[in-house]
Amino acid sequence: MTLGLDDDLGHPVELAGPPRRVVSLVPSLTEALSVTVPDRLVGATDWCTHPAGLDVTRVRGTKNPALATIGELAPDLVVANQEENRELDVRRLREAGVPVWVTRIETLDDAFASMRRLFADVLQVPAPDWLTAAEQAWATPPPPGPRVAVAVWRDPWMWVGARTFTGDLLTRLGCTNAVTAERYPKVEPGDVDAELVLLPDEPYVFTADDGPEAFPGRATALVSGRQLTWYGPSLTTARADLTAVLAGQGRMPRS
């Protein structure tokens, strides 16, 4: 049975059948695949740290995957993401005859729809229970929340801006994103008009001694970057965890 499908970018992907050997170049998809179809995942990046104890061949990083190692794994599908991975690597894999499925996820609804397509249309397995639970967890409208800014780097200071998954997550939590100039703008802390500053542990690892001191007189919270990104199974608890942080009930557990 031959499958002819278009990925999230509209690129045609020809498959001989439901993939049985999958390499993931995206940490969030690695976790979703490992939890749902563990027997099919054969490779992942060095940055794929969930679930704990993941035992598959490592293919280096998201921005510099070891294409030779991927080829040796003989995958019948590689999964990638428009933002996480380089178009050059995707193109080289395709030129080598490896089918690549590229996802595009800028909103929570994008994440749900993209993962449903990956499981139902590509892998041809039922939607996992965690995906249904995550959709239900985010279905109800939120109460009004504070004006929030999410830092992603310092030196220079960079922030979550417009048209980003995390920005959409803030909206779904009832918050207003205080930084909307572009996707990841550079803005000095003193120019950020936010009631609450969230300091995640990825990609920059903010700590209690490295971040909050830049915001005297303003509320800050150290949070898990994993809950601010579109990690699959973690979306089931992300809303409750983030709501607790917004309500001032302490720091979010970090992974």
Automatic annotation (TrEMBL):
Which InterPro entries did the record assign? ABC_Transporter_SBP, Vit_B12_bind_prot
Q: Which Gene3D superfamilies match?
A: Nitrogenase molybdenum iron protein domain
Q: Which domain of life is it from?
A: Bacteria
Similarity section: Belongs to the bacterial solute-binding protein 8 family.
PANTHER family of this UniProt entry? PERIPLASMIC BINDING PROTEIN (PTHR30535:SF35), VITAMIN B12-BINDING PROTEIN (PTHR30535)
Protein's UniProt name = Cobalamin-binding protein
